Structures are given as C-alpha cells and as structure tokens.
UniProtKB/TrEMBL annotation:
It is found in: Cytoplasm. The active site is at K360. The keyword NAD does not apply. It comes from Breoghania corrubedonensis. Its EC number is 2.6.1.16. This is Glutamine--fructose-6-phosphate aminotransferase [isomerizing]. Homodimer. The keyword Repeat applies. It catalyses: D-fructose 6-phosphate + L-glutamine = D-glucosamine 6-phosphate + L-glutamate. It is an enzyme of class 2 (transferase). Residues 41-180, 213-355 form the SIS domain. GO terms for molecular function: carbohydrate derivative binding; glutamine-fructose-6-phosphate transaminase (isomerizing) activity. Keywords: Aminotransferase, Cytoplasm, Glutamine amidotransferase, Repeat, Transferase.
Length: 365
C-alpha cells in the first residue's frame, strides 16, 4: 500500500525517520546511552585483526561508509569489495576473522557465494540483512537485522539508511570493545545516533526546493557527484540512484580524484553535485569545488550553514542541511540524494518503482 504517496519509493524515503529509529533502538540502550551487544555474539571485536565486508550495489556503498567508521572509531581495518569480484579473487583469510555481508534481500547470488567462500575459510559470518528468513541470514553465524520493513521500490532507500544505522552502531560497539572509545565517547556517539531520525525529518523539509531543482537536472545528460571521506560512498550512491531510475548518466567520484581525470569533463552543461558537510575534510572539498567553478561547472552544493558560508564559490543551488554530528552525516545526507534522484525521475516520467532492466533481488550472477 502506497498510502498517500505516488510511488513506493516516495513512501519509503519518507519512512526513514521511523525505520531508522526502530533499527537504532535494536542496537542502542537509550537509558544507559550504550550500544547493545547482541546476545551470543560469537566473537569479540577486541580480538579481531580485520573485518572483510562484501556486498553489491547500494549495500556495497553502505559497507564503504562503514569502512570509514570502523577504521576511525574502532581502529579496526576493513577490506571491502563487491561480491562479484570477491567471490573469484581467492583472497587468503586468517581463520577466526569476521566476514560481514550486507544485503537487503539476503538472496543476492554473488553475496551468498562470497559468504560460502568465507565460511570455507573459517571466518565468523555476520549478516546485515533486512529479510530475516533469507538464505544469507540462514547461513550466517550472527544476524544484524535492519528493521526497515518490506522495501518494494526497486531502488533501495530505507534499507540503505537502516544498513548505515546498524553499521554505525556496530562500529561504536567495536570501538568500545577495543578500548578505542571511552564510556564518554560511546555516550556521546550514541546520543548523536539517536538524533538521526530528527535530523532526517529536517532534511525531508528540503523536498520542495529539491523538486524545483530536479526540473533542471532532468535536462542534463551527464551528472557528476563528488564527495570526500564518508561522503565519497554517498556520491557513488547518489549517482547509482539517479541512473537507476532517471536513466541519466551519472558518476560518483572521490573529490580528490577530480584532477586525475574527470575534470576534463567539466563544462557549463554538466551539473556537479557536491556532498560536503562542514567536517574535517570540508576545506579540501571546497578547493575541488573551486576548480569546478573556475571551469564554468554548475555546482549543486549539499552542505550545512557553515559549509555554505565557507564554500567560496557561486553555486547553481545550495541545499542547506541541518548541522549534524559528523558520524551521522551519511544517514542524513542520504535524504537529499534520494529525493534528487526521485524527483528527477518523476519529472522525466520513468517508471520509478520498477525501472527498466532491473530486478529487486538478483538471485543469478
Ligand atoms: C540499488 C539497488 C541494488 C541493490 C543490490 C544488492 O538501488 O537496489 O544495487 O542494492 O542489488 O541487493 P541486496 O541488498 O538485496 O543484496
């Protein structure tokens, strides 16, 4: 049931404050302001040398964000790859490591094959899944459920932000178990996480501005997304979402890679969407943005008030987001990215919930 929405995708975008709150409540103790370690967890984060993450598509981008979190908050190295590459690479793995698989459906063929490889390599198998009865869930030692509810739109939205919520909570848990985070640090991060839904509600208020902007984007034949740090995976996710449902060619790039090639594409016809909360790497991204502006590129900047003031460029449009703690920015910044793709596609008249050539669950390789 789409309720009052025109598409399942719109409904699912708007459900995110609720489902993210529900998912976080599963991993956080809101009285004690701590993370909740799942019962019977078959490993201790303190003893892990590294985590191997494998997934496809949007779930892969959630894993890439998690790499930033695990490495920074828990000093835990993360190797990550798309499942279709990982499964054939014959990566050597030290027994007793943690292999994490992220999948909304829990049925993705390449992800499942990677899981079976890791099992043969004697890894602990953890799954971040939305469908608890799925094959990937059944074959795992421990399940970290996302509580997104059924996702009907083929383009993943709420499953993604729920995956991020689980992974952020896990990274804080890992940081605490590894002695990287103090009890105070943990409390501060848990508090920040609990504020995510409220900030998502604020971000959703940008919808009318985004809808107007989408009319402009719909005229483009190519769009570049840039981000740095944990905004880099979001840039790729934004590009994926846009191409899936609007069929406009888009690419996501690490902002610092701009000068190593893609800058050659910049002209006044190609919109450049820059995802840049005012964080530790903002100044670096701002200088990349200035390079784009100097070449006549049209910039759409997604940032907060401080970022808007410090950008130092003329933008075609600036989406001013709420000022959020750095750790939760990926969840909150997912909203404008999804809305941009959605409204561009609606404007172009594509079949948003069932884009051509795509299936909700990819059970063949
Ligand atoms: C993108 C999208 C796909 C899936 C990918 C993995 O919007 O939906 O890229 O994320 O096929 O699917 P799951 O998560 O079911 O393994």
């Amino acid at each position: 049931d789409k309720g009052n929405y025109r598409h399942f995708m719109a409904k699912e975008i708007h459900e995110q404050p609720d489902v993210v709150a529900r998912t976080l409540a599963h991993y956080l103790d809101l009285n004690a302001m701590t993370t909740k370690v799942p019962e019977g967890l078959p490993f201790d984060f303190a003893n892990l040398q590294r985590v191997v993450i494998t997934a496809c598509g949007t779930a892969f981008y959630a894993g890439l964000v998690a790499k930033y979190w695990f490495e920074r908050l828990a000093r835990l190295p993360v190797d990550i790859d798309v499942a279709s590459e990982f499964r054939y690479r014959e990566t050597p793995l030290d027994p007793g490591g943690l292999a994490l698989f992220i999948s909304q459906s829990g049925e993705t063929a390449d992800t499942l094959a990677s899981l079976r490889y890791c099992k043969a390599e004697k890894q602990h198998i953890g799954a971040v899944v939305n469908v608890k009865e799925s094959t990937i869930a059944r074959e795992s030692d421990v399940i970290f459920p996302t509580i997104a509810g059924p996702e009907i739109g083929v383009a993943s939205t709420k499953a993604f932000t729920c995956q991020l919520s689980v992974l952020a909570s896990m990274a804080v848990m890992a940081g605490r178990q590894r002695g990287v985070l103090s009890a105070d640090d943990e409390g501060r991060l848990v508090r920040a996480l609990t504020e995510t839904p409220r900030y998502m509600v604020d971000a959703l208020k940008l919808e009318p501005q985004i809808e107007r902007l989408a009319r402009n984007l719909a005229k483009a034949s190519d769009i570049l997304y840039l981000g740095r740090g944990s905004s880099y995976p979001l840039a790729m996710e934004g590009a994926l979402k846009l191409k899936e449902i609007s069929y406009i060619h888009a690419e996501g790039y690490a902002a610092g890679e701009l000068k190593h090639g893609p800058i050659a594409l910049i002209d006044e016809t190609m919109p450049v969407i820059v995802i840049a909360p005012y964080d530790k790497v903002f100044e670096k991204t701002a200088s990349n943005m200035q390079e784009v502006a100097a070449r006549g590129g049209r910039i759409i900047l997604i940032t907060d008030q401080k970022g808007a003031a410090a950008a130092g460029v003329e933008t075609m449009e600036t989406l001013v987001m709420p000022d959020v703690p750095a750790t939760i920015a990926p969840m909150v910044y997912s909203i404008p990215i999804q809305l941009l793709a959605y409204h561009t596609a609606v404007f172009m008249g594509t079949d948003v919930d069932q884009p051509r050539n795509l299936a909700k669950s990819v059970t063949v390789e």
